[in-house]
Design a protein that fits this description.
CATH topology: Porin
Strand order of the largest sheet: 1-2-3-4-5-7-8-10
Largest sheet: 8 strands, antiparallel, barrel
Structural class: mainly beta
Strand content: over 45%
Radius of gyration: 18 Å
Number of helices: 1
Helix content: under 10%
Length: 203
Amino acid sequence: MMKKVCLIVFFISLAVYAYPQRFHGGAFGGFVVSQLDGDQLGGYNKPGVRVGGWVNTDVSDITTLQLELEYIQKGSKISQNRIVTENYYHSRLNYLQVSIPAKFLIEDKWKVEAGLAGGYLYRAQEDDGNGFLDAHPAFNKFELSFLAGLNYRINEKFTGNVRFNYTVFLLPVRPHPGDQKRWPFNLGQYNNVLAFTLYYQID
């Protein structure tokens, strides 16, 4: 996996240095907390990581369009205080994701962001107390999600980011057990993720 991340950062770096007059780029890393809405557990109890590379360009004085390629861990986990009365559960969903946020300057060092992300699920495992096995029923291989967040520019090289990432309502990552559908939006399980990330600018 680290080889894939390194390749992502390498190709983004090439783009930055090929067009330095228009593009900026770099790498980022951070942690996430997540849950699966629809699995009846609730709570951001599943920790994970988020790493990758980015490139962006200014499209106006206050608007920046950014492309990110990342490895991100999602899933869910039962809270410790519920294990006493309920069965243990832990899911690990590992995605390769392309995110495209538009960032808008609101005040000096602050920017808000909104956009979409497309993810490819290359590994999904679940543990019901007997060890991790391939998820059953299977999760969808592809995910479309929306994102919204807040950025604070610490200095010329580093920017802090807090981001909310949620599966598009009509495209759940997995149906409810028994293929139940609860209209209009609750059609299955949805990734619900909070990410805390530090961005580094190379150029």
